[in-house]
Q: What sequence folds into this?
């Protein structure tokens, strides 16, 4: 059967199409009967999929695409309550295909888009897409937006275990494709799905997430990690102590920790000099949180810099975009215009609440004043106008 014959399947019934596929696969060397069974179309299609390994070995890519698209078109006409085993079987065969990576991604995408939007089988197909894209360094061809994926998770009504598995696969695929920053966000999202009851199951992931966040120079605010149940499970361990220093500690605390636990920090794959630079930036943020200005001498002493290094360090601080400030070289001080909070505690929430209430009250007073002005302008004028005749 030629590729042209495959394209002509549209004019045949589903049973005739299955028969044609059986015959063609048999010609390619597959161990399959050329005749349909008496067990019905679904069974016949399952047998076709089972014999489809030969497609990856004996056909050119264009023929393989036509054949696989024919199989997909038949899958999509099967009643939803009979789809599970068929879809899983097809996906497994495609993932195991030993060539045509781009074609594999295309076929999985075709099947994904052909399934009902709320079908849980989309989960199986998407996980396979991540597996293929990750190992072949083609993650750019797969949807990885967290907002989109969260929407799918809601539509598919997945169990917590399946959600966690999806996030794990996405995390690994992103790491394989050197998209570490996005991978870290995915890991944090995955850890947030655990409860106190099962937090211990994600112990290794929590450990890995902490190390990734500390190692990433772009991540300076880490207090959100402390609220994650798997991270809380690590309380009392050295990795949690180290995280706490990067959340709210200062340079001196890190230096003491490193001196006492040098082998441990090095075993994590962290670079001590990079940790020092990060802690210098974090220490300055702590200094600037509640101050309008900081003298160069204070920076030099707290951050442990020479006088010549202070100005270059302040430039590094500004580049983080966590602090808006400017230098007054004449008076040797840093003027702080804005600084992010390293931690957002209950006290910070209360302070924010008070400020918002104050703004609301001020706006109410302004609104009342404006009403008074408007009302005054619409008051009737008593008396008559003077006669100018």
A:
């Amino acid at each position: 059967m030629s590729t042209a014959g495959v394209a002509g399947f549209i004019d045949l019934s589903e049973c005739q199409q299955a028969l044609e596929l059986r015959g063609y696969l048999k010609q390619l060397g597959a161990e399959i009967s050329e005749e349909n069974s008496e067990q019905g179309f679904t069974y016949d299609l399952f047998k076709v999929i089972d014999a489809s390994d030969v497609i990856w070995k004996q056909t050119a890519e264009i023929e393989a695409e036509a054949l696989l698209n024919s199989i997909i078109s038949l899958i999509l006409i099967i009643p939803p309550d009979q789809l599970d085993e068929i879809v899983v079987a097809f996906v497994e065969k495609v993932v195991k295909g030993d060539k045509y990576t781009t074609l594999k991604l295309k076929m999985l995408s075709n099947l994904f888009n052909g399934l009902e939007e709320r079908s849980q089988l989309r989960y199986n197909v998407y996980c396979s897409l991540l597996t293929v894209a990750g190992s072949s360094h083609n993650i750019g061809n797969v949807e990885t937006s967290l907002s989109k994926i969260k929407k799918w998770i809601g539509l598919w009504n997945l169990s917590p275990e399946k959600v966690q598995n999806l996030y794990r696969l996405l995390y690994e695929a992103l790491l394989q494709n050197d998209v570490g920053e996005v991978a870290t966000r995915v890991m944090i999202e995955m850890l947030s799905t655990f409860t106190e009851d099962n937090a211990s199951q994600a112990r290794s992931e929590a450990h890995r997430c902490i190390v990734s966040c500390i190692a990433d120079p772009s991540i300076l605010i880490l207090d959100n990690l402390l609220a994650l149940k798997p991270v809380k499970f690590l309380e009392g361990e050295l990795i949690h102590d180290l995280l706490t220093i990067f959340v709210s500690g200062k340079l001196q605390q890190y230096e003491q920790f490193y001196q006492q636990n040098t082998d441990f920090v090095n075993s994590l794959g962290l670079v001590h000099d990079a940790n020092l630079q990060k802690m210098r930036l974090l220490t300055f943020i702590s200094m600037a949180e509640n101050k309008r200005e900081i003298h160069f001498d204070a920076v030099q002493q707290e951050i442990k810099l020479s006088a010549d290094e202070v100005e270059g360090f302040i430039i590094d601080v500004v580049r983080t975009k966590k602090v808006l400030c400017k230098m007054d070289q004449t008076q040797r001080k840093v003027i702080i215009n804005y600084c992010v909070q390293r931690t957002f505690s209950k006290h910070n929430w209360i302070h924010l609440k008070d400020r918002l209430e104050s703004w609301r009250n001020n706006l109410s007073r302004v609104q009342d004043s404006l009403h008074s002005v408007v009302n005054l302008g619409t008051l009737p004028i008593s008396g008559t106008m003077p006669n100018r005749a």
Remarks:
- DSSP finds 21 helices and three strands in the chain.
